[in-house]
Amino acid sequence: MTEETPATGISDLPREVGRAAELALDRKAEGVLALDLRGISSATDFFLLATGNSDIQVKAIADRIIDELKKEGVRPNHVEGLQGGRWVLVDYVDWVVHVFHPEARDFYQLEHLWGDAPTQEFE
């Protein structure tokens, strides 16, 4: 993490999740938020949420995360929604990236669904 994205909520956030947040911010993502789901969900340990203001920006944010992390040896297990651009899910097994169009993020409200999870915001 850089000085622009200080750790404020999750003391042991994995490096890859923080790196994905930085990459999302590189593409001007808004509302970048990590949720710590350990002890709350058996499906994964962390969610990283981000919002893009258009289908093109949503795809650009997801592509940036996927491409740059691959260069660092971190490959997703599964990717969904990349063609549509409304909600892209990038599954790294232990953590999952959700890049939303604003209306999709408002509709699904994952941060409210998992409201008891510790969070970390990135700016």
Q: Report the sheet with the most strands, covering strand number, pairing sense and barrel closure.
A: 6 strands, mixed
Radius of gyration over all CA atoms, rounded: 13 Å
Q: Which ranges are low-confidence, i.e. pLDDT below 50, for 5 or more consecutive residues?
A: 1-8
Which strand order spans the largest sheet, edge to edge or round the barrel? 3-4-5-2-1-6
Could you name the CATH topology?
Answer: Beta Polymerase, domain 2
Global morphology: globular
User: Got a strand count?
Assistant: 6
Task: Count up the helices.
Answer: 4
The pLDDT mean sits at: 91
What structural class do the secondary elements suggest?
Answer: alpha+beta
Number of domains: 1
Find the CATH superfamily.
Beta Polymerase, domain 2
Report the portion of residues in β strands: 25-35%
Structure description:
The protein has one domain: 2-Layer Sandwich (Beta Polymerase, domain 2). The chain starts with 14 loop residues before the first helix and ends with a strand. It has a 6-stranded mixed β-sheet with strand order 3-4-5-2-1-6. The chain is α+β, with helices and mostly antiparallel strands. Helix content is 33%, strand content 25%.
